[in-house]
Write a structure and sequence with these properties.
By secondary structure, this protein is α+β, with helices and mostly antiparallel strands. It has 4 domains: about 160 residues, Beta Polymerase, domain 2 (2-Layer Sandwich); about 70 residues, Hydrophobic Seed Protein (Orthogonal Bundle); about 80 residues, no CATH class; about 45 residues, no CATH class. Helix content is about 50%, strand content about 10%. The chain has 22 helices and 11 strands. A hairpin with an 8-residue loop joins strand 6 and strand 7. The radius of gyration is 28 Å and the shape is elongated. About 35% of the residues are buried. The structure holds adenosine-5'-triphosphate (ATP). Adenosine-5'-triphosphate (ATP) binds next to helix 3 and helix 8.
Length: about 400
């Protein structure tokens, strides 16, 4: 396995060359400090799956802050140490890398955040969520490329199995249930039957008591995934959203394809906001407020969802409106909310607004009107609005027609 591992670690398609340089720097400094140092977790999992690595997860036996300080002295960059947790973030020009001291975790009560004490790599691997995330590759000195797999993660990875490390895992930390679903759908793996049985009333009971921040963080991670709709639907199938809030509706499978933004539309994409809008748009205003409180929504996110929901409800009243009436009714709403309602309703006026109408402006400006002798005041705004409406509704189509229209009223 070591030769294979070395080949994977040198593959620039899996670890970009600048990250490989950083890894060598870290390995050299750890060796100089006589500190065993490892690549762990998701990086090892994805490397063995032949998938490109996003983040380098680095664990040291010894104080990670000392390693960080040595790196800054030798190589440069900046260090943000967290003395309480014996961790440090090493900021390089191209990257930031988390340096973590190997730790042991104990849970004082189900669902509580763990108590952390510095320990060995073996303990560090045993505190993890699933066997496939509990492997390490040693980096320092002559040990470079040695693999540690005390929980048989590689076998589970080869067989596509998601398996917890001990039966209390989901009770200790029910966010792992979301994580299991993410890996299951992302890699098309299976949750091991014994692990699946641990998603039971006890662990779901603890899940229901988790803070809104922790739950929302997990759901946000789901919406950032390529197969997010499948993940939300899977979670729906396990009936665990109702443990979190009774008003959480099932995700409509017909909306799954809408999570991928159309890049030709000039609207900043936001998969997370889009996900929540599609999920909650059909709730009542009161339910949206209540769910937003439970999931600790930011006020921006709550506004996006409420905007979408309100617009969706007002569609029947806007149905026969002129382009100007549509535009004036929706121009204060967030573009992404309008787009979400378009996707769900297929109401063409909303797309026309996003693609065309919102860009329509008269040639004349407020200054032009003042130059024509109008006094500053609300009348100027009214005229500009009427002009814009005339352009939108097609009663003015050229600059000449605009001038003639103005000549009539000023
Ligand atoms: P992803 O590709 O989804 O980011 P990752 O494995 O990099 O996966 P992180 O959330 O960055 O996931 O976590 C890094 C590592 O920390 C995981 O691989 C896992 O070993 C461990 N870990 C993360 N969350 C938990 C948890 N709730 N319980 C136990 N171990 C965890």
């Amino acid at each position: 396995m070591t030769t294979d591992l070395l080949r994977l670690m040198r593959d620039p398609n899996l670890i970009p060359s600048e990250k490989q340089t950083l890894l060598s720097d870290i390995a050299a400094q750890a060796a100089a400090l006589d500190m065993p140092c490892y690549l762990v977790g998701g990086s090892v999992r994805d490397l063995l799956l032949g998938r490109p690595i996003n983040d380098l997860d680095i664990i040291v036996e010894g104080d990670a802050i000392n390693l960080g300080e040595a790196l800054v002295q030798k190589i440069g960059g900046k260090l943000t140490p967290h003395h309480k947790f014996h961790t440090a973030i090493w900021h390089q020009t191209t990257d930031t890398i988390d340096l973590i001291t190997a730790r042991k975790e104990t849970y004082s009560s189900p669902g509580a955040l763990p108590t952390v004490t510095p320990s060995t790599i073996d303990d560090d691997l045993r505190r993890r969520d699933f066997t496939i995330n509990a492997m390490a590759i040693r980096l320092d000195g002559d040990h470079y490329g040695e693999s540690l797999d005390p929980l048989n993660g590689q076998k589970d990875l080869e067989q596509g199995i998601i398996r917890v490390l001990h039966p209390r895992s989901f009770v200790d930390d029910p966010t792992r249930i979301f994580r299991a679903i993410r890996y299951e759908q992302r890699y098309a793996f299976d949750i091991d039957p014994a692990t699946f049985n641990l998603i039971n009333s006890e662990s779901l009971g603890v899940l229901g008591g988790l803070s809104g921040e922790r739950i929302r963080h997990e759901v946000d991670l789901i919406f950032e995934e390529e197969h997010s709709a499948k993940m939300i639907l899977r979670a729906n199938g396990l009936n665990f959203f109702e443990r979190i809030h009774l008003d959480l509706p099932p995700f409509n499978p017909d909306y799954a394809e809408f999570l991928d933004m159309d890049p030709t539309l000039d609207i900043p994409a936001d998969r997370i906001a889009m996900g929540y809008m599609l999920w909650f748009m059909e709730l009542t205003e009161a339910s949206i407020q209540s769910v937003a409180r439970r999931l600790c929504f930011t006020s921006d996110l709550e506004d996006s969802v409420s905007d979408a929901s309100r617009l969706n409800r007002s569609l029947p009243f806007l149905a026969d409106s002129k382009p100007s009436e549509w535009s004036f009714a929706i121009e204060k709403l967030q573009l992404l909310s309008i787009y979400a309602v378009y996707l769900v309703s297929g109401q063409k006026a909303l797309l026309d607004y996003l693609v065309l109408w919102r860009h329509v402006k008269p040639h004349t400006t407020g200054d032009d009107l003042k130059a024509r002798g109008l006094q500053p005041g609300p009348r100027i705004g009214e005229i500009l609005t009427q002009l814009r409406a005339a352009w939108l509704d097609g009663s003015i189509n050229t600059a000449q027609e605009e001038k003639e229209w103005l000549n009539k009223i000023t």
